[in-house]
Amino acid sequence: DLAHGQLVCNSNTAALLASYIVQAECGDYVEEDYPDHRYLSLYKFVPSQDDHLERKIMENHKKHVSMTPGAADLNLLETARRCDMYGIKMHVAKDHEGVSLNLAVAHMGVLVFQQFTKINTFSWAKVRKLSY
User: Fold this and answer.
1) What is the pLDDT of residues 16-75, one digit of tens each?
2) Straight-line distance from the first to the last Cα atom of the chain, in angstroms, rounded to the nearest whole number
3) 0.85 cut: is pTM over it?
């Protein structure tokens, strides 16, 4: 989801998530093996990955010394689940006036977004009928 842009988060969170992936895949940061951020260019973490993000990932990776791959995976999931848009898949829709909206089905009900701003929530207790 992160690599395909489906997990919406800020660049700091994306860098932290990516650093856990690197820790799980590559192990501890070793300066002799990774003299600069270019070792991260082999991976595709986010659609708009650039040198600045790779430097942030490297700085986070340096902090994960002795973290096991299992612990890195767990930290990745713990961080991802705190993202506001975690587990939410947007579906394009229009309201009765033709305004473009996005709908998402979530544990709390049907969420309505304009761009990425939530404007309404219909709780499951109030949903009686859905039509396409």
Assistant:
1) 999 999 999 999 999 999 999 999 998 999 999 999 999 999 999 999 999 999 999 999
2) 26
3) no
The position carrying tokens 């544990």 is 107
- Residues 94-99: contacts with CB under 8 Å, at least 24 apart: none
- The residue among 10, 4, 15, 8 whose CA lies nearest residue 115 is 8
Distances (CA, A) of 40 to 59, 93, 115: 12, 37, 31
CA distances from 82 to 9, 16, 63, 107, 116 (A): 10, 12, 20, 15, 16
Token representation of residue 77: 């999931």
Q: Where do the domains of the chain lie, and which CATH numbers do they carry? A: 2-81 (1.20.80.10), 89-126 (2.30.29.30)
Q: What share of the chain is helix, strand, coil (3-state, %, to 5)?
A: 35, 20, 45
Residues in the chain: 132
CA dihedral sign of residues 95, 101, 105, 110:
negative
Q: What is the largest CA-CA distance in the chain?
A: 61
